[in-house]
Each structure stands twice: as structure tokens, then as C-alpha cells.
Amino acid sequence: MIDTHLHILPGVDDGPETIQESLALAQALVQESIHSAIVTPHYNDEFPPRSAAEIQERVNVLQQELERYNIPLRLFVGHEALIRPGLVEDIQAGRLATLNHSRYLLLELWYSTWLPETERVIFELQGYGIVPVIAHPERYRAIQKDPARLAALVRQGALAQLTTSSLIGMQGNTARHCAEVLLKRGLIHCMASDAHGLQRRPPGVLLGLQRASALLGQGHVYQMTEKCPASIVNNEVFNFAQPNKRF
Question: Does the predicted TM-score (pTM) go above 0.90?
């Protein structure tokens, strides 16, 4: 599996605090069959701003430590950007990193409210050639209440990324139910760990993928864990399936 959403850099957000914790998380990810991962620290007002260049430098340092300890996990740079106007300017200025410097941007929505500018921000990103990848849509209250909201964003050209552990209830039963609904309706394009550590939000990848396979079959899971993520890492256009219109 290629993990496209991961908090593993030490001391930058609510992920690991030390390099030792980062290495332990990396080892756990490898044991759960993840061979490559895009590092996506939070890009919001809650944590100190760190430019794309700084994140790349920190990724390089962690990659060297992984190689030193023979942990076979390949890292790429990215951010998880909280939605707001002005993200295009942040990308242009080098403040915000897309996923492995590609056309794809990991975009986080507000959990409890629906930002009125959501569709406009996505439209602005697309106008600049950016494809938004909506992070963990199963956890947003508005989408939990009405999955058609996500379907509208997908029809607008956005992609959606599910957290594997949501499928086994690690984000709560409401998120688990929503995750299954979104999968069945064809609204999920890739799956990721969104791991933050071994204690706080551990990976839960293998069990989540087993549940996804039971719902959709291994072929669909392969699309969401290898083919789609590989297209993102390699900055390639991928022919994503259209959502099931049975709403």
C-alpha cells in the first residue's frame, strides 16, 4: 500500500513528538504492508506554519534515519491543508506543499460546519490546475448527514480519501457507518492511514482493508491503495470511476 495521508514528522503537529516515536510508527506501518507514504503535516492556524521547503528538509532527515535503521519506508512530501480562501497563493509562494509536488492537494474540511466557500475554494484550486483530495470525508458532520454533499464535490472534480481505521470503528460508529456508505456509493478514490502515532490514532490499516475487501472486493481495494496513490505520487491523471447515483 502507498499511504497518502500520514503524520510522522517529529515535533511539527499532533503527530510524534520525538524521532524515536517516528521510527516506531514507521516500523508499524511497514508491518501493515505500507511501503511508501506521503508525509502530510497539518497546514492550519493551530500549528506553527512550516513551508514546503522546510517540510521537504525534515522529510529528508527522517528518510535518512529510516535508512540508518533499515526501515523500508519511502517518504514523500506534502501537507494537509485546512480549507480556506487563498490556498492557491500559498502554493504559489511555496508555503503549502502539494502531494509529492504534484497536481494533487490534500484538503481538510471543517468537522462540525460546512464552510460556505467550500465549492468556490475548490473551483479556485482547479482553475490553477490543482486536484483537491478531500481528507477523511466520513468524519465530517455535514457529509455524515448527507453524503450527496461529497458526491457534488466529486462531480466538481475533487477526489476523496478514506481513513482505513474508520472502517473498524476507531473514529466512532457514525464515521464507520458513513465510511461504508461512501464506499458502497463509489465516492472514495483512495484509502490512507492518517496515522499520528502508536498510541494516538494508530494505523489500523490491515483490519480496515479487510473490511473494505469484504464490502467491495480486493480489486477495488487495490485501486484505492496502490493504483490511485501511485497516480498521485507520479503526478499522473487517473481515470477515476464516477459515483453511484443512487442517492
Answer: yes
